[in-house]
Amino acid sequence: MATENQHTEQLKKYGVVVLGGGESGVGAAILAHTKGLDVFLSDAGQLAPLYQRELEDHGIAFEQGGHSEQIILSATEIVKSPGIPEKNELVKKIRGRNIPVISEIELAYRYKGDSKIIGITGTNGKSTTTSLIYHICKQAGKDAALVGNIGISIARQVALQPKDIYVTEISSFQLDDIQDFRPDIAILLNITEDHLDRYEYNIQNYIESKFKIVQNQTSDDYFIYNIDDSLITGQLKNISISSNLLPFSMKQELSKGAYIKNNEMLIKVQEEQVSMNIYDFVALKGKHNQYNTMAAGITASVLDIRKEKIRSAVQTFESLAHRMEFVATIRGVDFINDSKGTNLNSVWFALESMEKPTVLIMGGVDKGNDYSLIADLVAEKVKAIVCIGLDNQKIADAFKDVVSPIVQTASMKDAVDEAYHLAEKGDCVLLSPGCSSFDLFKNYMDRGDQFKENVKNL
Question: Which residues make up the binding site for ATP (predicted)?
């Protein structure tokens, strides 16, 4: 039964109310419905036509364009979409009534049965690592699904096509509302300042949010983490973790876990040791991808996947769209799309992997960036900066003494044209914005697609 805020059952009580009608919200509503729960979905905006049709096909009651507070505040339980912040007025009222609030991953966990969950979180590298683990699982013949923040919600997968293994990309926002959620294998790639507006501009709040991925783990589970990350190791000193610790490092040799020495990656979990030459990683260039590959390799070893399968899968993995994605070479100039690089840590890693003089396209909605973090790499690698966005004065001010020229543009076409003009044969044009995309684009995917389109039109 579809409604538009004025349905006749205003006072009907629902067991579960889902707030937010994106992929995670609709997935949660479908799962709740298939499990016989009385569910209602409410979205302040307009639902995508595809989601609206799905809800109607499943006979799930919903509203869009506003919230019916009477219905929501009489719910037994709320499933809150990760995009809705705590400072939202309706969320404050829900909290004031002490109505239980859970995330979609918590709901999915309740109904996963005996299936395993591999949960991947961190500030950067989640999508690549999640996709690589899924690729290894598929190559090894495992019955796995690629779910979570990367695409299909885990709740939808559990409801409509259950699998033995859910390889799940998880954001801190999704972890904020878990209760019993417990991944069999938890992976924490790194922690750098990001999304601090959601965490009262306190990095410790963000760290604790990321560490919720291990809070319910037992001695049967595994925690794979970056031991080179000082924020991770600092937090580990303050908490106790019940699961089996498997660190990875580029800076030290480890008896268990993974490390890199003399360009060889060594993974030791079970009796069988896996070794790979980092130069065999065709689509996984740069130190950040070596970290991602260690995390994925450890995971595969925990799953008892043979070393030959792990090696083969790493070598045949193709890079993700919008994450250091090669687009084209035009008159000797390479074009790389890293539109998913929405924070400065991502830009740092992108620049670190550059081997040619680089024209950097960056800018957008600044999230309180401290550009001094990448100043040394910009000085070393970047010959020109093309700013894209409505207000990039902060970028111009930060790098005016580091690189010249710095050009301002207000459309992707202009940015690509300027970058191409500034580049010479043997150079690289890199789109790695370091900012959100919402001033000129729908999202980072739209931004990356426009970049690729304009490159192809050169």
Answer: 122-128
